[in-house]
């Protein structure tokens, strides 16, 4: 559910100038997404009210799906059924779950995460964590957000949190 919400939120923010916005959105999202999402949305300026676009939208992405979360109505799609690799969207989801746990008091920024053998073996974008190494939740968040570190995401996922 959080993954779908984060993808939809990202897509909505990217094309927000095409559709009218509503101050009701932050209240609708505050429960499943956490207060930090609602705060983020409520502090941004609403786009001026415009009639819905009547011409074809040009999107350079190879595949797009935009859905109204409360109704499930597909607003826009382009090659939406082609299976693609999620890339760093999974890292955004991981960060949403970490921030939710922080907000709920389940973890704190000072808690430590111990790197597993599996996490240390990740390839791609990484910060080269070593098996048995411990880092704080705060440091892991920085690794995920700044370095897009696969090893930090996996280390957090497989930790006791």
Helix content: 40-55%
Number of strands: 4
Strand content bin: 5-15%
Query: Total helix count?
Result: 7
Low-pLDDT segments? 12-34
SSE layout and pairings?
Blueprint: H1 2-14, H2 24-33, H3 35-43, E1 64-67, E2 74-78, H4 89-103, E3 112-114, H5 117-120, E4 134-136, H6 137-147, H7 150-157
Antiparallel strand pairs: 1-2, 3-4
Verbal overview:
This protein has helices at 2-14, 24-33, 35-43, 89-103, 117-120, 137-147, 150-157; strands spanning 64-67, 74-78, 112-114, 134-136. The chain has 161 residues and is mainly alpha-helical. The chain folds into two domains: 2-78, no CATH class; 89-157, no CATH class. The chain has a two-stranded antiparallel sheet with strand order 1-2. Helix 1 (2-14) packs across helix 4, helix 2 packs antiparallel against helix 3 (35-43) and helix 6 (137-147) runs antiparallel to helix 7. The protein starts with a helix and ends with a helix.
């Amino acid at each position: 559910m959080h993954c779908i919400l984060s993808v939809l939120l990202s897509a909505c923010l990217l094309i927000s100038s095409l559709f009218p916005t509503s101050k009701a959105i932050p209240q609708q999202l505050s429960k499943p997404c956490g207060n930090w999402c609602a705060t983020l949305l409520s502090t941004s300026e609403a786009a001026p009210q415009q009639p819905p676009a009547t011409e074809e939208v040009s999107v350079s992405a190879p595949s797009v799906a935009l859905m109204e979360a409360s109704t499930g109505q597909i607003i826009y799609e382009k090659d939406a059924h082609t299976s693609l690799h999620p890339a760093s969207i999974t890292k955004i989801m991981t960060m949403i779950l970490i921030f939710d746990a922080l907000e709920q008091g389940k973890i704190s920024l000072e808690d430590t995460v111990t790197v597993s053998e599996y996490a240390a073996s990740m390839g791609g974008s990484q910060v080269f964590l070593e098996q048995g190494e411990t880092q704080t939740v705060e440091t892991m968040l920085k690794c995920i957000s700044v370095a897009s570190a696969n090893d930090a995401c996996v280390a957090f996922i497989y930790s006791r949190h």
